[in-house]
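To assess whether the prediction recovers the assembly geometry, we first specified each molecular entity separately, as shown.
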Amino acid sequence: MQDVVRVRRHPTARRQDTGKPSHWRKNAMAYSLILPSLVFLFAIVFYPLATGLAEGFRYHSRVQPWLTRFNGLDNYVQALHDHDVWLALRTSLIMTVGIVGLSYLLGLVSGLLLNHKFRMRGLYRALILVPWVVPPVVSYISWQWMLNDQSGLIDVLLVKLHLVDSPVLFLSNPRLAMASIIVVGVWSRFPFMMITVLAALSSIPDDLNESAALDGANRWQTFRYITMPLILPVTVVATLLQAIWTFNDFGLPFVLTGGGPANSTTPLILLAYKEAFQRFNIGYGTSLAIISMVLMLLLGAIYLRLQKKQGVYQ
Amino acid sequence: MRTTSKRRPRLVLAATAAAVLLASACSGGSSGDSAASKDTGPVKLRYWDMQWGSDAFQNQIKANVAEFNKTHPNIQVQFQQLSWGDYSQKLLSAVQAGNPPDMSGGDSGIPFTMAAQDQALDISDLFKKWQSDGTFADMPEWAYKKFEFNGKDVGITWQFDQRAIYYRKDLFAKAGIPLPKTWDDLMAAAKKLNNSSKGMIGIAVPGKQGTYDTDQFYMTLVFQAGGSLADANGKPAINSPQQLTALKFEKDLVSCCAAKGTASWTFTEVLKQFEQGKAAMAFGAGFFANDITKNAKKLAPNVGVLPVLEGPGGPQARHSVSFANPWMIYKQSKHPAQAKEFLAWMMQKENLRKLYAAEPGGKWPVYKSLLNDPIYQSNDMIKALARQSVETGVDYWYPSNKGGVGIASLGTGMADTAINPVITGQRTPEDALKDADKKLAPLFQTK
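The predicted structure of the complete assembly is given in tokenized form:
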């Protein structure tokens, strides 16, 4: 009888005896619920990432499949010696610093102005968001038309107002082309900075400003010693995020200048695209994208560290 | 205990859902011819092609396919239109996924790209038929010679895409300038007609980096200088004396007589400048003729097409760029015989004529006998363009296609590394060509 009873015991009986179900059993439902997400994450993130990393170590031209082979660090060595890569890195850096720096300044000024109470403030706040909500490609194409030296609105106006004798070559002169990219980039990004600054400003208690006023602080001193330190954490995070997005912005130079003239507006991400998808040089193009990714990971690590300092994850 | 027994079906359900989702995510689209694999029912073919023109043209392609389907009840062709932006990636991905169409169009180099992957079906039997039934006798040689590659026939031209220099007849007549016949004549005319104080440029050409428009004027000059992109052995001929001559000429021409903003111009800006009456000449595509006729009605009667110029390469090098756009069949097709039947039907003169007629002046004929068709007689521009495409038209694979795979992979490489940097004055022609050769030569490596 005793044997029969033993046979009929449920498999989990021993565990139940201890009173502690296994970790897996305890969380089985949770795991089963996240399983589809994990499967998709693997399929659309981890697998492509692993494939991409592997591609960076191969010579792989889609039109020369017979030459495909593992070539170790050759792609990275080639990139180190490639003048175009260094030029593209320089371009990426100028674009990023120019666009992020200026869009932050503009966002800060407009945020400070729109933080005051005045009539139709809501309307102004909404209008200023327009550049940010317009799909980027649409705004870049519109800017391309406006900056066209023959029939662009800006040159037509400049000439008609006799401000210039002949059309300004916004997109044909290497320096002006870079300046144009920065202006368009700032135009499309500063609303994000403004919103961020506005959100940070609204979290500053009014009594701090009132106390400063009672202590005799002028506007600049209030801004310098109260406002700026309090919005600084948000500022750093917002500019870092913006830097990552700008460094990886393919559409802006691709649509506006095509990377020219004379490669002067070809950032690293556009160079990677041209290598991989126009010259079918997948291996080398991927290695350039990986270099870009590593640089962005560094910025991302700084971002996460700052977030942690601010207690977001605590 | 009850809890456990309830959990199990849920777990099974969740796991099954995940498996179903994974399976549906991972399964590629089937070739769409499951019916074809059965013994009964029509064979299903997939035909992919670019958006080649207006709605009228696209509708005519669909109408041709529908007519084929109607007259060939044992074969049903499904037409899919691809966008220009990513067609090559789509085709390459489909090939690598083992799921390409049975037949496709594409840019003028797509059969070489596919042949490099061993994906282009050899259609030598069709070539033999076309040779024997007189079809080829009615075609310019380049229409079929271009696709005789490594002993196989990997595609066939169904239309040419002509490039030419348009000019203002009235301005030439007023200035007493005879029609240019040589490079020197062109330079002289451009200089004489260039008048920046009146907002008139001698010639409008594209020069923007990152576009396929820029290298087309340059390649016209390269051919006329007697050069090419690859030599007879398939080796790159980028850093050659002929290319240097062509690049120097373009630099001089742009410096003296083109718009200062040329380095940011595509065909869009060129056409606009010309239609606004601000350019005496313009290098452009065949579609300019229709656009000028439609959108610059007052100007149109005064616009002509320059004869193909004679350059340093002499009279035998009097060529114009005319892209030979192909159809091809894929090796992975499960129904090669039916795909060939469809291709042969589409290539019939009367069927191609319907396509050309849907957009008069938008597509240039592969059949010489169509030159006298009313489609190509509607105005002088169209008449001249059709004649030039048949008589002098060649494209980047001329004269030898042995470097075909490399040429098909150049992308905007010539514009980016040579032409645009030179016309902006950032590089000398010598340095730019050396650099272009260094960068682009690896693409010409063969098996």
